[in-house]
């Protein structure tokens, strides 16, 4: 599947919504947890989460940031946000707000910046992933942290598994182009951010990359 924003919107307003949480948390939950553990997330942080989806990451983020923190989740799917809101209500989380917006276009209108910017499993399905990334960066204060976790094209010996891992990701919008883009994004982060660390998992097809602005 070619990377196309309209197709992605269709996926996340349709079939993917109902059966999203279980396969995704099973496949990636432990890797995402590792990223948050290895990050500088701390009590009281102000965190912005692009492509927050159903809010699967909120629990792990809150374990590090606590009740006094503030989380802003952004997603362009009203259906995914509805599930996120249900999760928020069920857990009685009072410090999370959700915004229905496109991550490539939503602008930071205030001078009040965030300590940490997060995007998991978003970059690889956004055609204009660079706009989304630089937009996320614009919300984060100097010395703040960016945490990206996503599927990528594996390299070296592991490249033989790319068709398989892309196939697995396809029903959630995964594509060869998107997996290539997230690999490229890591290169950008490694060049432009400070103290960058990258770790790879699952046949090197999933990574997290963390760096400071
Ligand atoms: C694979 S889900 C990831 C959700 C969550 N981060 C997680 O890891 O479970 C991708 C999410 O990105 C959202 N998304 C894709 N493109 C977007 C865009 N341009 N702006 C905002 N949200 C977008 C989709 O609606 C979907 O909820």
Q: Could you give a short description of this structure?
A:
It is built from eight helices and seven strands, in the order H-H-H-E-H-E-H-E-E-H-E-H-H-E-E.
Determine the N-to-C terminus distance.
33 Å
Count of distinct structural domains: 1
The run of helices and strands is HHHEHEHEEHEHHEE
Note poorly predicted spans: none
Strand content: 15-25%
Describe the structure in your own words.
- This protein is of the alpha/beta class.
- It contains eight helices and seven strands.
- It has helices at residues 5-11, 15-18, 21-38, 58-65, 78-91, 129-139, 162-169, 176-192, and strands at 46-50, 70-75, 96-100, 114-120, 140-151, 194-201, 206-212.
- Helix 5 (78-91) links the parallel strand 2 (70-75) and strand 3 (96-100).
- The mean pLDDT is 95.
- Bound molecules: S-adenosylmethionine.
- Residues 8, 12, 24, 51-53, 56-57, 75-77, 80, 102-104, 120-122, 125-126, 172 line the site of S-adenosylmethionine.
- S-adenosylmethionine binds at residues 8, 12, 24, 51-53, 56-57, 75-77, 80, 102-104, 120-122, 125-126, 172.
């Amino acid at each position: 599947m070619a990377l196309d924003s309209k197709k992605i919107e269709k996926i996340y307003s349709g079939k993917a919504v109902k059966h999203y949480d279980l396969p995704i948390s099973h496949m990636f939950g432990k890797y995402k947890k590792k990223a948050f553990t290895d990050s500088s997330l701390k009590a009281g942080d102000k965190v912005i989460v692009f492509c927050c989806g159903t809010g699967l990451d909120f629990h792990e983020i809150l374990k590090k940031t606590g009740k006094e923190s503030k989380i802003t989740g952004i997603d362009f799917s009203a259906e995914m946000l509805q599930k996120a809101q249900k999760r928020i209500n069920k857990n009685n989380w009072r410090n999370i707000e959700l915004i229905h917006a496109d991550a490539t276009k939503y602008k930071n209108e205030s001078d009040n910046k965030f300590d940490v910017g997060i995007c998991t499993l978003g970059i690889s399905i956004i055609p204009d992933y660079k706009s989304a990334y630089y937009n996320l960066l614009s919300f984060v204060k100097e010395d703040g942290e960016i945490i990206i976790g996503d599927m990528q094209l594996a390299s070296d010996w592991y490249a033989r598994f790319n068709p398989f891992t892309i196939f697995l990701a396809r029903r959630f919008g995964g594509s060869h182009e998107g997996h290539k883009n997230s690999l490229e994004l890591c290169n950008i982060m490694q060049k432009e951010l400070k103290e960058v660390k990258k770790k790879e998992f699952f046949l090197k097809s999933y990574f997290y990359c963390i760096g400071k602005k």
